[in-house]
Amino acid sequence: MENRILGIHHITAIAGDAKRNFDFYTKVLGLRFIKKTVNFDDPHTYHFYFGDEVGSAGTILTFFPWGDRVHRGRKGAGMATEIGYSVPKGSLDFWVKRFEEHNVIYNKPSVKFGERYLTFLDPDGLKLELIESETPDNRTPWETEEVKKEVATKGFHNITLTLNEVAPTAFILTQVFEYKLVKQEGNRYRYATDAVDNAAIVDLVELKDEHKGLVAGGSVHHVAFRVKNDEILMEFRAKVEALGLSITPQVDRNYFHSLYFREPGGVLFEIATENPGFTVDEPLAELGQHLQLPAQYEARREQIEKRLASLN
Ligand code: ZN
Q1: What's the whole-model pTM score?
Q2: Parallel, antiparallel, or unpaired for β 180-185 and 188-192?
Q3: How far is CA 148 from CA 1, 29, 55, 154, 176, in A?
Q4: Burial class of residue 239 (count of CB atoms within 10 Å of its CB; 0-12, 13-18, 19+)
Q5: 184 phi and psi, to 5 degrees?
Q6: Average of per-residue pLDDT across 254-276
Q7: Alpha helices in the chain, H assignment, sequence order
Q8: Among 76, 84, 120, 157, who pairs with 106 as Cys (CB 3.0-4.6 Å)?
């Protein structure tokens, strides 16, 4: 079991204004801010991580807030187009009321695959869903003053990829990641792994004539899948490479170790390890409270901090 893909590890998206992004996810949505760091390739841009108490794989949503001048992305084929969170049954009424109060754009709740869900947009136009999962979700949610555990998000339910053609991506999911087709409704194909109980679903939506999406503000940059450790990570590297796809060498992301490859449908996939986790550079109680820099930027901390927007 442990040498398999263990569902979603994290999802990374692009935002505009940093404080607006921080406020929305910590206050309105009630996620824990688990890490404040910088883009390792561009230390003058933040990299934010939101999740449950410890930043468990399958709960981690991360953002590069590129600032107000960010170009708006365009939804289309070859990208992840919806992020689905699992919420407790009966909680959608709370969320509708909350979205009303905070001027969040949402659709009235609907049903797909037998589950009630509520679609909404974050301040940058990123599309998310809250789904009342029909399968038990025993994960412990992070709780805030305003978003108590009876209604709080428990981590990812699924991710949706929009594609011109489902088959090439389905091949990767089934043949490399060991996912199986479990359900279909119209042009939506639901794939899931039985290696984990949660964050186990990838929906593929086929739109033959859809224009290519543009990844920029308000869109998903990549989807990361979880593996147990470095050894298994490298086994997957060999499997992807054997298909003739190009894949990066192992990259050290401080909180996990990663590989990146573009799946044939155009979506950037990452495979990431559980180790070492988010307590590697600050204690659990203080996660997200201090700016954490990778070693190569420590010497420039003062200058970097000065150029990053305040979140207060
Ligand atoms: Zn990533």
Answers
A1: 0.97
A2: antiparallel
A3: 34, 11, 18, 11, 39
A4: middle
A5: -145, 135
A6: 97
A7: 18-23, 92-101, 167-171, 230-242, 301-307
A8: 120
Amino acid at 143: E
Q: Within 189-286, where are the H helices?
A: 230-242
- Name the band, by pLDDT with cuts 50, 70 and 90, for residue 1: low
Compute, in angstroms, the gap from residue 223 CA to the centroid of ligand 1: 7
Residues 187-220: b if buried by 16+ CB within 10 A, e if exposed: ebbbbbbebbebbbbbbbbbeeebeebebbbbbb
Query: With 0-12 CB in 10 A as exposed, 13-18 as middle and 19+ as buried, what is 90?
Result: exposed
231 token code pair: 């050894």
Go through the domains of the chain in sequence order and give each one's CATH number.
Answer: 8-307 (3.10.180.10)
State pLDDT tens for residues 40-75: 989 999 999 999 999 999 999 999 999 988 999 999
Alpha helix stretches (DSSP H) within 114-273: 167-171, 230-242
| Gap from CA of 267 to ligand 1 centroid (Å) | 13
In the reported structure, the alpha carbon of residue 90 is separated from the centroid of ligand 1 by a whole-number distance in angstroms of: 32
Scanning the structure block, which residue is given the tokens 């409270």?
Answer: 289
Rounded Cα distance, 216 and 96, in Å? 28
What integer pLDDT is reported at residue 115 of this predicted model? 97
Single-letter code of the amino acid located at 14: I
CA of 226 to the centre of ligand 1 (A): 11
Q: How far is residue 254 CA from its own chain's centroid?
A: 18
What percent of the chain has pLDDT above 70?
A: 100
What distance in angstroms lies between residue 279's CA and the mean position of ligand 1's atoms? 17
